[in-house]
Amino acid sequence: MNPMDQIMEGEVAHLEQIVRMLTVADHIDIKYWERRIEGLKARATAPTHIERLRQLAIRIDRLRNGLNPDTGR
User: Fold this and answer.
1) 71 burial type by CB count under 10 A (0-12 exposed, 13-18 middle, 19+ buried)
2) What 3-state DSSP class applies to 47?
3) Helix 47-64 vs helix 30-43: crossing angle, to nearest 10
4) CA 37, CA 15: separation in Å to the nearest integer?
5) Furthest-apart CA pair in the chain: how many Å?
6) What is the distance between the terminal CA atoms of the chain, rounded to a whole angstrom?
7) What residues contact 23, with CB distance under 8 A and at least 6 apart?
8) What highest taxon heads this organism's lineage (predicted)?
9) How many CB atoms lie within 10 A of CB 22?
10) Residue 18 CB neighbour total at 10 angstroms
């Protein structure tokens, strides 16, 4: 893994950890996390990173809509 992919791996793993902890009740600024994800998606080159960021975007969208980010309910 090249150095840029290693940095991206750390960034994606960090976002995954944060999003797992978020709930609708947190009343967080969803836009901030959407911007972080979009910024990383623009720089991501590894297919695994792109897919993981896509999944994070789905989870954030569920939070925005007041749903459980894990189940969409």
Assistant:
1) exposed
2) helix
3) 160
4) 8
5) 39
6) 37
7) 63, 69
8) Bacteria
9) 15
10) 13
The two tokens of residue 72 are 């969409």
Percentage helix, strand, coil, to 5, in the chain? 75, 0, 25
The candidate with the shortest Cα–Cα distance to 37, out of 21, 20, 55, is 55
33 contacts 69 by C-beta, under 8 angstroms: no
What is the chain's length? 73
Cα–Cα distance, 48 to 52 (Å, whole number): 6
**Closest Cα partner for 53 from 67, 68, 34?**
34
Instruction: Report how far residue 40's alpha carbon sits from residue 10's, in angstroms, rounded to the nearest whole number.
Output: 11
User: What is the pTM (predicted TM-score) of this model?
Assistant: 0.83
